[in-house]
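Known limitations

Structure tokens in this collection are predictions and should be treated as such. Users comparing against experimental data should check residue numbering before alignment. To illustrate the layout, the record for HTH lysR-type domain-containing protein is reproduced below. The input appears on top and the generated tokens appear beneath it.
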Amino acid sequence: MPAGHRRGWLEAVELRQLRYVVAVAEHRHFRRAAQALGMTQPSLSRQVAAVERELGTALFDRTARGVVLTAAGEVYAGHARQVLEQVEAGATEARRAARGQTGSVRLGFVGEALIELLPSLLARFRSAHPGVGLECRELSTAQSGAALLAGDIDLVISRGAPAGDGAERLTAVPVAQDHLIAVCHRGHPFARLPAVTPDQLRGQALIATPAADEPAAVRVLAPLLSAASGVTQARDVHTVIGLAACGLGVGLLPSSARRLVRPETVMVEVDPPVRLPDLTMAFRTADGSPPLAAFLAVTMAHCPGTARRLARLVPRVSGRDGRGLPR
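Generated tokens:
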């Protein structure tokens, strides 16, 4: 068949006509096929005849007892089934994509989010959306805002909201609260106390995250750090605890780090409490991708304190249930 004729034929044959041919091939009878399709037999016969005219060959041998596929009909019906299956598969995938059940979410996070929040949140999301890929990358709070604005990631969990140029294009919602605790070696005098005061921490050798990585947290800790006898910088909570275990000073940690105690260390409360900047989830306000909306919907169910604010700030999420599916 010439290429021009083939293009014309492809334009002339409609999906419904492919369904008609497949139905007749399966039932091997025009009347039974018409009944299955919910149409009249004469109408079905005319549609199949139209396809045969376009092809220039018969697809069926008509007999008194029904129809039999010709050699051309066998080939055509097989390809018609494949086309219909592909169209249906495409429609299914399109619906899944619209519901946020396919695609991917790129998440940046501070290491502290792995202590309590992320293990349960990500497990819940993966259970509800097994078809959505999760790309996770550990980033400091300072790095996460820039990566989010650059489009390198889809959302971040940081210590405090991302700040700086372009931050007005982001939506940030607190997802967990923490207060300050201290960690020290078992041989340190603080290890025998039920709690220490901020004044007692002044003059100590302290271990804390660098200001360049976690500016919001370090601003809260600035009065303690400025009065320390020395400050050792550590980018990760595990490193803070490890250095305290080595006797290099008193580590400053979020209260969630109580889960990470080591045999050589003791966690000590700070009283009166010093509240740290909240763990905050942030994303580009204009990002309307279904996978992100699905993740936010799961967050709303997992972190109830976020539900009202996320529903108000991101209306596209409020119409979804806790699995990120339309209600």
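For this record: The chain is about 45% helix and 20% strand. The first helix runs from residue 3 to 12. Please report discrepancies through the issue tracker.
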